[in-house]
Write a structure and sequence with these properties.
The protein has 3 helices and 3 strands. It is an alpha/beta fold. It has a 3-stranded parallel beta sheet with strand order 1-2-3.
Amino acid sequence: ILTDTHTHLYAEQFDEDRNLVLQRALELGIKRFFIPAIDSSYYERMFALEKAYPENIYDKYLKLIEFFPF
């Protein structure tokens, strides 16, 4: 499985073409995307991206943040 191990697809820079970028990557065989947080102001965007692509977006800390917010 091809994996992007560090991407910030939830950032504002991708607001216009986020879905297109993800669809093109998926078509090319990239199936997993790990999204580290830039800072806590991005958590909601990260959750939304994970919800939109639950089979492809991963962040091992997202679940912890839901239970232990900073």
